[in-house]
């Protein structure tokens, strides 16, 4: 299949990869590691067997890679992220190692059903959505590019909840992903760091009369490392992801044991181990919860100790820290690291403040992921002081010095000082983590061109003026290994048959497909691949949900977290509009459509959960209406996660990217779908704009208000009623939803939906964009009628998506932010 499998270097260096040895190795592992024989082995036994054998083949390269970084004292980049949405690992690792085909063949000889075995693996769902998946794509690119990059995060015992749909509503179930064990991780019982909380600060004068601070009387927790090897594609580089689990301090029990209170001692142990118990399942509202702040400090504190330990093996002062260490903060979640590094350098290592600050700011860089005020983290000062008293003092000190500088530059502007302060003095005082992250970093990046521009013009305009050039753009990307090669093997094979398979490491090679867009034979093969992927999905939907999808219909997909700004509701307004058009004019030539939704709602997000119910209630009516006669169908695919995404995306014809302009920082789902030959219907928001520039405006359906329009409309006083009055179809749709057409058992169920639009101001401007969206959907239909032209557009989408490889993104970070170099891959 892929050419690197044939590379003799791989096969010779790792003799186990020759088929007979692989078979022997599998049987041995089944026997001696899993403790089963071929007769009694279950699919799960075979999964663990395959995983252990694959892991064995990684570990040598992994150690060589680490030794190589060590021997060269390479500058490393540390990606600090609360979330890593990795999905499954087995097939990814086999493809990266070049062993996948061989495994399939050998396991087939052993009578094992590979398709079932690979699906046994639980997704590692340690993330909410785009932000966590970005971290996972970056790890793949770092390793593939032979860059010395480490992921640091939290080993949640429970990841993102599993979503089930019961009576059309979301029900959350715990994600007990470690239940059967995780074959990819190596527990490192000896890599253990102390993390302190609470207590108070004691000031004292040292022997030189300098005032020093001591953080004492703390409650402590231990952080224990779990390492996961991250292999690159077609290289011997294997990087490391280190996740921390909370463990009770070893002496936790002494006090209580001495008092004879065994139960209390064990309870306390559990309490401290709760720190890494569960991922917060809300990615768009920053809840000021104590446990969340503790999780943040917990992993940052352990990670920094680990980073400095590694640095100090080679260096006996900190002067070279920024030349050897780059730390990327994935959103503000880990930004307490700035105060923590200052604490270590000043309080523990006794560096002068200015020197410590210089080193700190040259070490950190911060990625902003959102402009939405409710997502910007700010911690109540009182809570902060209780949990991290010394860090609050350090933040005050940073702030005082920073505001001095601002005052010097802009004298007599107290309003500006108030705006830029790290402390929000309005209401209850709180710490603005984004301001700490900006002031404490040498670079701040947005994740798409428009997002970076809006950052500079709106929420961070003062900072952009104060620090010209600090805010830069790094448009997101996705790894083509998982999102094309692995998710869509048929398309990958077709592409490789025409242009070879260098595209897997150099995605700009896809440009060589451009001339083939006019080649009728290629178009037919491309159409056959899409058709096969749609059939595969249809079989799966039938099997899982009993849902009948016609592969000849247009597969229209909106798969992403459910959120008002992403406007699943606008999509539904279109669905109901289509439904009415079919009902009112059943004999017209309607293009058959299957509208597919998937996505999780934050458990406490009422409107998002109601949207899921509405999707399911609309589906119930539409799918069972004989007048519709299968020309319109709606389905909600439960539990959208990485593995579901891999199954859905190759089958999409149409990609819904319809957020209110100015709200979606980048999006990466948009990239995955376009890279798999879906055409985008979207607003000029996030990376949609850059996708349009890349694929050409003839090959994308753009509609709606621009970000500037949105500001203008809101400023002028938006009146959603006017749009409703002016549009008969819209009025009918809203009447139906509001009056119980889709909820006869509870006619008022969806009144809050309509009220949000008509009474409470329609903040996300659905009604303003409705007519334009409906019109654009009509153009989609017309385009879809001409399958030849549609396939041409789809091919041109794939061919022009090279820029959206996370390899491009990561190289840009490496060159413009981290200053880290590609290493020679170990041989
Ligand atoms: C890519 C991805 C996302 C992000 O999707 P957007 O459409 O960019 O919001 C969310 N969840 C999963 C499982 C993904 O793979």
TrEMBL record:
Residues carrying N6-(pyridoxal phosphate)lysine: 672
GO molecular function: glycogen phosphorylase activity; pyridoxal phosphate binding
Reaction it catalyzes: [(1->4)-alpha-D-glucosyl](n) + phosphate = [(1->4)-alpha-D-glucosyl](n-1) + alpha-D-glucose 1-phosphate
Function: Allosteric enzyme that catalyzes the rate-limiting step in glycogen catabolism, the phosphorolytic cleavage of glycogen to produce glucose-1-phosphate, and plays a central role in maintaining cellular and organismal glucose homeostasis. Phosphorylase is an important allosteric enzyme in carbohydrate metabolism. Enzymes from different sources differ in their regulatory mechanisms and in their natural substrates. However, all known phosphorylases share catalytic and structural properties.
Keywords noted in UniProt: Carbohydrate metabolism, Glycogen metabolism, Glycosyltransferase, Pyridoxal phosphate, Transferase
Family from the record: Belongs to the glycogen phosphorylase family.
Cofactor: pyridoxal 5'-phosphate
Protein name stated in the entry: Alpha-1,4 glucan phosphorylase
Listed PANTHER family: GLYCOGEN PHOSPHORYLASE, GLYCOGEN PHOSPHORYLASE, LIVER FORM
Gene Ontology cellular component annotations, sorted alphabetically: cytoplasm
Domain of life: Bacteria
Keyword hit for Endoplasmic reticulum: no
CDD domains the UniProt entry points to: GT35_Glycogen_Phosphorylase
